[in-house]
Amino acid sequence: MPEQPSQEQLLDYFAGYVSPQKVKVYQLWGVVSQLAGVLALGAALLLPACSEGETPSAASPPPAASPSPEAGAPTATEVREGARLTLSLDRSSYRPGETITVLATVENSTQDPVTYTLRNLGDPAIYVRLDFPGGATFLRHPDDPEIMQPAINTAVLEPGETFTRTVFWDQLLGSGPDARQAPPGEYTITAEFFPGGLVYGEEPVPFTAFTASLALELVAE
């Protein structure tokens, strides 16, 4: 393979076609390019290695750890036909203004798929309901869609599959300008799962809500 010409030889070659002023510019550019290469090599040696897709950045504080459930925090578990429904809270009581975190899971512990029913398109497998004196409301996650599309439909929980849903309650009753702090007292949280569903062309498979409930206490300041 023929030897590649050096940068100086290339500049001498182009000197016959361009003005001396441009040659000086090319020479200066060559020096700058070499200096940039040296700086890049130094940076690569000094900066810690980054995984693919990452970029080095200034040190930032670690993310805040999620609050751990208190020892003895409320948990309810119900099992029906191989489906295990679990509902838990992050603590047993709350003061005004504290956000309440509710965790609900359903697990298919059988070797067969479990069909379940949903009220709306895109609904999660588990509904979490808050019952309070004079009414009830369903708790939501911030990522839940704002607009529901009512349509009874079914989905399947595969053997060994677990679905987890986390929702929050900010202790407000009502919405918009009518929202108000919930008064101290006892409230009920219920997780609902609907095993079974409609089979087209055949008789509907009967299904009823499979639930797990917990009492929740709001205390005064």
Rg result? 32 Å
Q: Report the sheet with the most strands, covering strand number, pairing sense and barrel closure.
A: 5 strands, mixed
Q: Kindly state the percentage of residues in helix.
A: 10-25%
Q: What percentage of amino acids are in beta strands?
A: 35-45%
At the third CATH level, what is the topology name of the largest domain? Immunoglobulin-like
Spatial arrangement of strands, main beta sheet: 3-13-12-6-7
Low-confidence stretches: 1-68
Number of domains: 2
Series of H and E elements: HHEEEEEEEEEEEEE
CATH top level of the largest domain is: Mainly Beta
- Please, what is the CATH homologous superfamily of the largest domain? Intracellular proteinase inhibitor BsuPI
CATH architecture of the largest domain: Sandwich
State the total count of DSSP E strands.
Answer: 13
Category from helices, strands and their pairing: alpha+beta
What overall geometry do the principal axes of the alpha carbons give? Answer: globular
* Distinct helical segment count: 2
Mean pLDDT: 73
